[in-house]
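Quarterly update from the structural biology core.
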Amino acid sequence: SDNGHKEIVGMLLKVQGINVSATNISGDTALIAAARYGKIDAVEILIEDGRINVNDADKNGYAALIWASFNGHKKVVQTLLNVEGIDVNASNKDGWTALKVASCDGHKELVQMLLKVEGIDVNAADKKGYTALMLASLNGHKEVVQMLLNMEGIDVNVVNNRGYTALIWASLNGHKEVVQMLLNVEGIDVN
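Predicted structure, tokenized:
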């Protein structure tokens, strides 16, 4: 389905006994492949079929939502977020969530979509202790940083496994505007 041929996907879904959860060598289901490559028509028809588990993940733990967020596929992300039961906080084997990959890459429209989902964990840390705020700060994505800072419950003082905070990362990488934004947050630990 990664070529997005809607009619062909529809034909295949009608085949008696088809396994809609079958995977390729990487562990990609049809939905994961379609989401990864931004094939919105295929994503929609697979979801409409009703037999797909939107939270299935590949061998590295990437679910369709994480891949679509990583690659900046807005329509796919929005479609997946509208599916009942989508796990917006699902993470890959390294602990990366859709919010983390979108924040790291500066996909501000995706971050905005994800932050609207009830139950999103804005402080989720990966295996190395990085949060979405840290990743956006170290890459200088000021609009994403601001969106995250506007979230109730955001913890600006989370320390990763290296002992660094969002403020330290922004400072080390010379992101002056991000540093100023973080310094304006009440309760920021500058030490």
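The longest helix spans residues 40-49.
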